[in-house]
Here is the input.
Amino acid sequence: MPWAGDSTLLLAIDMIHVLKLMTKLEECWMKNVTLVSLFLLGLVLRSYAADEFPKPYSAPCTERENVFEFTDKPAVKTIGNDRFEIAFAVKGNCDATVAVVDSDGKVIRHVGSGVLGANAPAPFQKNSLKQVVAWDGKDDLGEYVKEPEKLRVKVMLGLKPTHDRLLGPTHPRSLPGYVFGVAVAEDGVFVMSKGNGAHGNLFVRKFDHDGNYSHSILPPPANLPEAKLAGMGWVEYEKGVRALHGPDLYQSVADNGFIFAGVGGYGIASCQPAVVGDRIYFCNGGADKFLPDKFPSMLFYTMKDGSVTSQGISGMPFVKGFMHPNPRLAVSPDGRWLYISSLNTTKQYSSGNEHAVLRRDLTGNAIAEVFVGKVQKPGSDSQSLNNPQGIDCDAQGRLYVCDHENNRIQVFASDGKSLKSIPSERPELVQVHKKTGAIYIKHKGRVQGATVERLTKVKSFDDATEAYHIDGVVTALVAVDSWTAKPRLWMAGTSFGAAGGTTGGAGPSVTVWEEDGAGLKKILDFDESVKREMGQAYGGRPDGHIMSGRVACDPVRETVNFNQSTVFDLKTGKLIGTVRLPHSDDVAFDKKGYMHVHFNPGFYGQGVARLDPGRAVLDGGKLNYPEVPYDYGIDKKISLENWKGILPVRDQPGAKFFQEGLGVNMRGELAVESNIYYIPKMEESSWQEFTGGGTRGQYAKLSSAGQGDGTYAGWMRTIENLQKRGEEVYSIPMRPGVTMTGATIWTFDSLGRLRQECAVIAGRLINASQIDEDGYLYFVVNRPRMFGEKHFLVGKGGIIGAQSNTQEPFTGTLLKTRPENVKLVKVKATIPMDGPPSRPPDLMDCSTPTLFGKDYWMWVEGAEWLYAGASPITCNTCACPQQRMHTDWFKRTYVPEMYRHSLGVVDTAGNLIMHLGRYGNFDSGNGLKSKIPVGDDGIAMFMVRFVSGTDNYLVYDDYGERTVVLKLNYHAEEIAGIGAR
Here is the structure.
């Protein structure tokens, strides 16, 4: 963004540092110290200043120099049977990658990759720009290459990913999630869409009257100046360099990524928005199902160009005492009065069971008041209503109300006086043409005694007779376009749900209909137009959901598996097909071409299976991969499937069911993340630790509110039933300092033999687990990295336009550890330690971003290195929002860094290769060809959670809105034949 990284800020010197420097210089002068001492003092002060914005890595880790030039080109020397030396020299300490490739460029042996210099990883020499790297003549699976002279060595300097393509539907008409609301104005049509469920994101896009795309409004575009973003949040991650965020930094960086509080999540299923001047008004649901007082009724607005104001994004108090999960808004023609219908007060998810329409004065601060009808008093007289639903205003300021149970459209003057009743059977939606006054009603009808869905046009307020009607019109939203030559109706969806534990919608995307005589003609179907354009690349609309977008690449076949279901060819972008898999949490691939599948223990059963995509069978339109039993796997029947050799993992479903990681190296060795919750004879403690301190009574209340059997009693029944069947319920070994419930990692060899149970005991959350060919483990924990006595980025967040509002961004930590006996420990654990280790703490075991103090300090036993800033990852709230970092076959790890809208690329020694990406919304998501390109490489990200890759490609899902493929190029590369120099 233009305001991020302002050069004046980068050049500014903090006055406190100037004063400290002057003081030190005076002391040095008085002591007559040498210039060398002054120079060393400068280094100390530079280090002090740098600590204010610590790097995500720690010494001895470093980062690459951006100098990508060979001083000696690669050469390969044969020094014996199956013994070769690869020599080259470079100008600076950049990252170098060495591979043995065949004539097609396919990597036969991943020799090494990393940042050269003082902390260069093996097989590179440290502190040397001249490198001699040994190759033993073997391929990646340990087999000797038969004809090495036919191979070549490729040396690449400076990883340089470039945008390659978007996967699946790329047209902006491919709306993420379901259509949440539509509003038509003179300058265009504003379409809101939202992902289903508690974690669905909200998107707003503008189209012209013909359905041609204009621009993306939410999330805000990347080219807006700070002056147009008042109320948005920021994270300053380097001196003077800020990243744009929503106003709630925990929500934005760590959790769902919602920008408008309460509009995502449980509270609201749909909204009929209203356009007033340059503002688009919408609201939340008035409450949250589980936390009724957390999200009071608020009215929001965003500007048509994507800019925001502090008032618009923080919200204005709207109504009091009502929920409105499906609000219908309408605005008076002068833009002063905003009306709302479809209200209820029962604290339950239902729509329209109150009997009043409220209105709010947009020029003042007062909340909405009853305009017509009587709260909780249905009636049928001219001033009463019974279950009012859709509303709209005409050009004269009259209000039209769908009086559902009274089978009429009730029309009121701007002073609330009843003007007319228009008969209509159970009306749901009403729209009035702003020029002709024609009234369009979505309602029920009767054909030979059977109920049908019907759309009726009534001529006008003055002539309230039917012009025509059309039966079979099933739609959840209608918006009339009053500014086209012929009237047009924009429709979308079939239903909205606001019941149980979720909110959402169903049905088709936007369709546009134009009046054609006494009827309507469909002139545009968003879904169909995208399908025609995409052809074989079409894979369905994006989900717009943070639980979606899981990508897992098959490096052997250069394909990507999306959401454990859809398979795309990375070279062409074409859809290969859909795979039939049991309910699973993660899949991963080895170099033998096998897919490893980690089942969900709650929705399916415990186990990890190995499948062969190379022997796929098409059955019922879906691909079926046959099992390749692990040699030491077990026979087990789960549901209707008989498995012949799956891994007997011991993960426990708990309340959330899902597990959070599966790592497989090239040889097929595994690192399986497994959540363990049971503590024998300490069930209450295990429940409280598992639920973040929740008590039996608290969770009993949630269960009675409709959460399901998420109770302590249900938890204990699960344990008892397993024990009755003779199954051992696993528990983490009791050791001082460890967290007794939560995340562990178990390791297995390629034959399926258990290497170590609980090779990692982390507790709380692990997101993603990876394993390299040396057995080292890589994973992300939801504990922030410590720098001194505070954690990463503490105090580095705030609100644009607010001088005193500082926030604490919450991030996790990426770790590389030894292969076994890894523990995260703290003094005050279930079994306390005698005392803290005699070294500074590594992590902060905080349940909120604002907790500090020695009671929360943690240490990692067995860490090789730690890398700060892994995000998004939640602290101790709902664990559904997750991430999956990726470790490739060169042992480079790509970890999401939501705090700065990037991916951190780290070599196997913990050195930073690069930060990849920067802030951008949909209009910046197509590389340098984007409407709003960002940076020199055009790589934009809003919220990346899931990332995977091959030797040639990197794939990530961004905010459930688009799936991006990058080509892994390099700044410089040279190829050498194998033989004597």
About this structure: The first helix runs from residue 7 to 11. Confidence is low (pLDDT under 50) at residues 1-50, 692-709. DSSP finds nine helices and 69 strands in the chain.
